[in-house]
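Lab meeting minutes (informal)
Scribe: AK
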Amino acid sequence: MLNQNSTIPLYEQVKESIKQKIEQKEWKENTKVPSETELMKRYEVSRVTVRNALALLVEEGYLEKKQGIGTFVSRPRIKKIIFHRSSFTQSCEKGGLKPSAQVLKKEVIDGKNLYRKSLQLAQDDKLVHIERLRMADDEPVSLEHMYFSYQEYGFLLWEDLEGSVYAIMKKRLGIDLTEKNRENRNILSVEKAGARFGKLFGVSSSEPVFVMETLVYHGGKPVYAGKDYCLGSRFCYEVNSTDVE
């Protein structure tokens, strides 16, 4: 029940109650939420209060409105923290999703490449390129490109990459790439899915796709450069202001 004497506005209380039902799976994803009239009776509040609560939940990504149909529980988003690296696997598991990967490419690239300089490769070194389609609960949500020094990380070509690359790095080399590191670089942009990503993710070509370019360091040296294409409707990014210079 709502606390009528609380300093917390009623619409915030309604919002938190509904949010809890979603997070505890009482209201499951893709199911239609009760009508405004039903919610008014359930919480004993006005229509304006219900509408404000629902609007906030839509804004936060918990609900989505479908034109002419109603309001539905959204599929959970995968939260990535921009100034603190978390692996795709960790991000999914925190959101209650099952992570997996389909390896599309494992190759060695010789010659010129735009990542050679940023990775500080020696002249005789090559690049290991890994391309993977990342899934959350078996649905494709991200296309991931990773570039490593062949001399230092060539062993990845013979590893099972359907799980976490970060876990492999920690097991093989004892390095934790999720540790906070101010040297890491992240550039986030947005583009339309277009025909290629529309087909890959099974969405409209006009659907937004986040493009995250990364350069991840450990011990003062770059470990890998990455470029991820992430389905806009399935990801959200958190900026921790304490990490911004």
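Next up, CB showed the second protein from the same session:
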Amino acid sequence: MDKKIFYTAFMCLVLSLFSCDDKLGDIASTTSLPVHLNITMPADLEGVEAGELSDEVFEIKNVTTGRVTTYTSRNDINLQPGLYDVSYNAVISVTDANGNVAVKNIRAFAQSVEISATGSTINLNTYLYVPTDDFIISEVFFTGTLRPTGNQYYGDDYVKIYNNTDHVLYADGLTFLESKFTTTQKYNYRPNVMSSAFTVQAIYTIPGSGTDYPVQPGEELIICDTGIDHRVANENSFDLSHANFEWYDVSTSPTNLDIDSPTVPNLDKWYCYTLSFFLLHNRGFKAWALARIPIDKEEYLAQYMYRYNYEVVVEAGTYPMSQQAYKIPNEWIVDAVNCSVEAEYAWNVVHSSLDRGYAYCGTMDHDKTRYFHSVRRKMLYLKDGHPVLKDTNNSSEDFNSHVIASEIERQGTAIDYQGTRCTQSTWDGVVLK
């Protein structure tokens, strides 16, 4: 046989063997394994067995690929090794002592669950889902605007609070919160209190005696950083002198003083981490929430400090950390939204019973396209001329991310640093009016 032909044939054989090995390796690495689901019922339903649940739906997301697969039976779940987020929904009929039957919704969420090459058990601690009968956050504008020079402008961030019910709500005593922890850095905080409390670094409360601030169905409140006409300082911004409340801080830094609007009343500041003035994180690395705190300020500040430990692991070594912050019991919270940046998102910093997803502006850290944009809650339909908004406690599903801020639309102000004016108006950033 010709040496050249023999060499060619030999190399083809070797390559085919390596190719087979590679294919076998691929098959081995992509083999799906049966996964066992261990479902723990909520404490509220003590004595009820998980087997009595019906209409079970498991949504399982591969964290690496983003692929979501839906299962309707816990006995048929097979997954490849990797990291997964698992959402669970089910219903159960419960009969009380008087023979009345009530249908209850059960949920669970497990984040970054590792499925090993030998199979795994996923533990799901369920909770009762009860739709809120209180205010919800309908929009968070944290990105800010840009000056005509292209530089960041500060002070025009705001939050909209919406009455999504069919009856009057009173805003007196409603408290706005910002998380201490960020959604872009995950640490093993000890003790871990997330299942029972929300760790916060800013607490501002709407004043009032109980019935001073009625809000009709379909109406909203605006709370903001500085309640002034920002167009005076930045022609690309908008007017917030009509806002309902502002968070105002008495700064201890003479070179960093806050502005106290003459037209907008101040929120009652219970606590804030800063010694100058408070701004929403302008890349959205936080969670924000609304709460009803049933005790007075002095009692709260004296009793709800949370001290915790964790480690920061860097190339130079591992460094133990010890810090403290205030905590808000989860049962006091009426609504919450996690925000982040898609490329930097690591985890949620509130319990899954409060929010199972996150909303965002910008796809990467320091994304310059984020300016002039906000996260706005989706509209389901119109009722009596006003929107009914989506509220499933899953911000990934409930919010439109990276949309033009509603105040920019309403006032027809700039949508970019070049001063291009907004010419459309929507209900939720997507659905046109």
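CB comment: The helical segments are 3-29, 297-303, 395-398, 406-411.
No objections, moving on.
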